[in-house]
Amino acid sequence: MDISIGEFIVLALAAALVGFSKTAVSGANTVSLAVFAAVLPARESTGVLLPILIAGDILAVLTYRRHAHWPTLWRLFPAVGAGVLAGTLFLMWADDTGVRTSIGAILLLMAGVTVWRRRVAARQEETAASGRARWKAPSYGVLGGFTTMVANAGGPVMSLYLISSGFQKLGFLGTSAWFFLIVNTSKVPFSIGLGLISWRSLLLDAALVLFVVPGAWLGRKCVDRIDQLLFERLVIGATVLGGIQLLVR
Predict the structure, then answer these.
(1) How many Cα neighbours within 13 Å face the side chain of 200?
(2) Cβ neighbours for 224, distance < 8 A, ≥ 6 positions apart
(3) Where are the alpha helices (DSSP H) in 94-193?
(4) Burial class, 40, CB count within 10 angstroms (exposed 0-12 / middle 13-18 / buried 19+)
(5) pLDDT tens per residue across span 14-73
(6) Helices 96-122, 136-151: inter-axial angle, 10-degree rounding
(7) Which residues cross the membrane (predicted)?
(8) What gap in Å lies between CA 14 and CA 29, rounded to an integer?
(9) Which pLDDT score is estimated for 234?
C-alpha cells in the first residue's frame, strides 16, 4: 500500500496499542481502528487490522489462557456468529464512504457504551444477577459479532457484558482473550471473500505485527499498576475524537 514513512509510524504505534490493549485494557484498540481507518481507506483498513488483532489475541491467550470461563463463551458464540453474518452482508454492499461513516458511528456508540459500562460496574452486584437473564448473551452476542465484523470494534460490547456478569480482572482478560482469538480467526475467510485481506495487505501486516509484541509486553507489565480510571478516560476521549474525524472526513 502507498503510505508515507510518517503514516507507517502512526500505524506502528496503533499496532503497539493493539498489543497493549490485549494484555492490559480491553477495548483500548478502538483508538487503533480509528487510526487505521484515518490513514488507510476505511473499508480496507478493517482487513489490514484483523491479522494484527489476531496476533495480539494469540499473545493474550498465551498470557491468560488458564483464566477463561468457557460456559460464558459457549453461551455467546451462536449469537456472535449471527452478528458476524449480518456484518458480512453489510460489507458486501457498503462502499468506502459507508464503511467510514459506519466505523465513526460505531466508535461514538462504543464510547457511550464504555461510559455506561463504568456506571454498571459501580452496581456490579445488582447487574451480576441480571447477567443470568436469557436475553443478555444473545443480544450482546449479535451486537458484538456485527461490530467486530464491520469495524473490529467488538471490544467495548464484550467488556460491558463480562463486567456486568461479575468478572474480575484475570477472569475478564482470560475469557476475553479466548473469545476474540476464536471470533477474529473465524472472520478471516469472510474478509478474504470480501477482498479485505490480500497479499498487499498481508505485506503491510508483516511489517506492523512486529510492534504488537512490545505493546503486549508493556501491557503485561502495567496491568497490575495501571490507573484504570484515567486510562479509560483517555481512551474514551481519543475514541470520540476519532469517530468525529471519520464522520466529518
Answers:
(1) 8
(2) none
(3) 96-122, 124-130, 136-151, 155-164, 169-193
(4) buried
(5) 999 999 989 887 767 888 888 998 899 888 899 999 999 999 999 999 999 898 999 999
(6) 140
(7) 47-64, 76-93, 99-116, 137-164, 170-190, 230-248
(8) 8
(9) 65
The pTM of this model reads: 0.84
pLDDT at 129: 45
Could you give the percent of the chain with pLDDT greater than 90? Answer: 43
Residue 152 — left, alpha, or beta (φ > 0 → left; ψ -120 to 50 → alpha)?
left
Which grid coordinates are listed for 22?
Answer: 490485549
The single residue listed with the C-alpha cell 476505511 is: 42
Q: How far is CA 127 from each of CA 75, 100, 210, rounded to the nearest angstrom? A: 18, 34, 40
138 touches 80 (CB < 8 A): no
How far apart (Å, rounded) are the C-alpha atoms in residues 18 and 53? 7
CB 158 within 8 A of CB 56: no
Return the biggest CA–CA distance within the chain.
51
Other C-beta atoms within 10 Å of 49: how many? 28
Coil, helix or strand for 226? coil
Confidence class for position 162, pLDDT limits 50, 70, 90: confident
Rounded Cα–Cα distance for residues 116 and 110 (Å): 10
Interaxial angle between packed helices 199-208 and 42-64, expressed in degrees from 0 to 180 and rounded to the nearest 10: 50
Quick check: 149 and 84 in contact, CB under 8 A?
Answer: yes
Q: What would the grid cell of residue 222 be?
A: 502495567
